[in-house]
Amino acid sequence: MTDRILTADELEAALRAIGAERYHNLHPFHRALHAGLLTKGQVQAWALNRYYYQASIPAKDASLLARLPTAELRREWRRRLEDHDGTEPGTGGIARWLKLTAGLGLDNGYVESLDGLLPTTRFAVDAYVRFVRERSILEAIASSLTELFSPTIISERVVGMLGNYSFITEETLAYFQPRLTQAPRDSAFALAYVREHARTAEQQSAVLAALRFKCDVLWSMLDALDYAYVTPGNIPPGAFRPESQA
């Protein structure tokens, strides 16, 4: 728990410091991904496992939406569902992520089946969905604040992957362009909510812990990818096995 009540500016600074220290753009696997140091099979493994995170975001957001007490808050949060699920078939972030996996040569049916997931991916994503469903509204909203830092990683990813992998195209990376505007919009709302509603030392400690937890979720997913697909011989039974190492 914080030893005193922080001002809203101090709380925001503490939240941003968590991102500067813990956001997963610092992970060695991501550094390698952006620098063009991975094989096609390793990039496939990343996209396949990240799909489960992307596909679970609407379930996470729907569980929070159901608990929000005002129409204003529900309208704001409902946009996140539309961003990821789309407003009709073939639209939205999940559909765009499937364009990424298809562009990498993965069958959509296999990706959507989740058969090739790493166990840690499933456990980490499920833990995040459960966190948002079970914790306070304030903590659930605070856990989304990794979006404060996502425009930087998206820009690095698009430039790095387009420049370093012959099998990546702008169409393959279609998921990311809308996120450059959606993520700042969403994080601005969440940050304003946290600044206004985290008024006690206990509440402020809880929102800081929520953001650390979310950073840990994303970091652990990359730990699992690094262990399974960078170190030889560590792919667990049933998980995706790359056919191409090109």
Structural summary, described in words:
- This is Pyrroloquinoline-quinone synthase.
- Ring cyclization and eight-electron oxidation of 3a-(2-amino-2-carboxyethyl)-4,5-dioxo-4,5,6,7,8,9-hexahydroquinoline-7,9-dicarboxylic-acid to PQQ.
- The chain has 246 residues and is an all-alpha fold.
- It has a single domain (8-229), classed as Heme Oxygenase, Chain A, CATH 1.20.910.10.
- Helix content is 69%, strand content 0%.
- It has 11 helices and no strands.
- The protein has helices at 8-22, 28-35, 40-65, 71-85, 93-103, 108-113, 119-134, 137-143, 150-164, 176-197, 201-229.
- Helix 1 packs parallel to helix 11 (201-229).
- The radius of gyration is 18 Å and the shape is globular.
- The termini are far apart.
- The model has no long low-confidence stretch (mean pLDDT 94).
